[in-house]
Design brief:
single chain, 2 domains, 3-stranded antiparallel beta sheet, 5 helices
Length: about 170
């Protein structure tokens, strides 16, 4: 999708929200900034002195379908509303309103498969439950990879960590 097409989708997202009476910021930038470094997030709302700017993962912009891109843009546009910089009850109310009226599936977080993208990120560690065998991919070192004994699986089982072979994908 071209920069111009992505900007048109942002304008549509803003218009749809305003048509429902959602108080989107008046000074939101009409230009979407593409982030070529982002690996784990699809969009971001950056509050600048000149007004909010919406940033979009370049992989999503180039490989995603129109509906997935629009859904992420709407999610970020809702963050421009007063007191909606996080995913509190007001943001959730607006997201549900957009979902009901326009058929979106806006959630607090999303994943590659929901957006129709291949997850090509490399896995560095597998965190594995000793009871149920569930495996959790980890892309980098974290507290759970360093201290698995401090954490439990949802089933209550203890965890162990294994290094993934180089080049392992989810």
């Amino acid at each position: 999708m071209t920069q111009s097409e992505v900007n048109q989708l942002l304008a549509l997202a803003i218009r749809q929200a305003r048509d429902l009476g959602i108080p989107v910021a008046k000074n939101i930038s009409p230009v979407v900034e593409l982030n070529f470094r982002a690996k784990n997030r699809f969009g971001c709302c950056i509050h600048r002195p000149t007004g909010p700017v919406i940033e979009l993962n370049a992989k999503l912009a180039m490989e995603g379908n129109r509906d997935a891109i629009l859904q992420v843009l709407v999610h970020e546009v809702l963050h421009t509303c007063p007191t909606c910089s996080n995913h509190d009850y007001r943001w959730q109310f607006y997201a549900n309103l957009m979902n009901q009226h326009y058929g979106y599936n806006i959630q607090r977080t999303d994943n590659f498969s929901n957006l129709g993208l291949e997850d090509d990120r490399q896995v560095k560690y597998w965190v594995i439950c000793n009871r149920c065998g569930k495996r959790f991919a980890r892309l980098k070192r974290s507290a759970v990879t360093d201290y698995p004994e401090r954490y439990r699986c949802q089933c209550g089982g203890t965890l162990r960590v294994e290094k993934a072979p180089p080049g392992t994908r989810r």
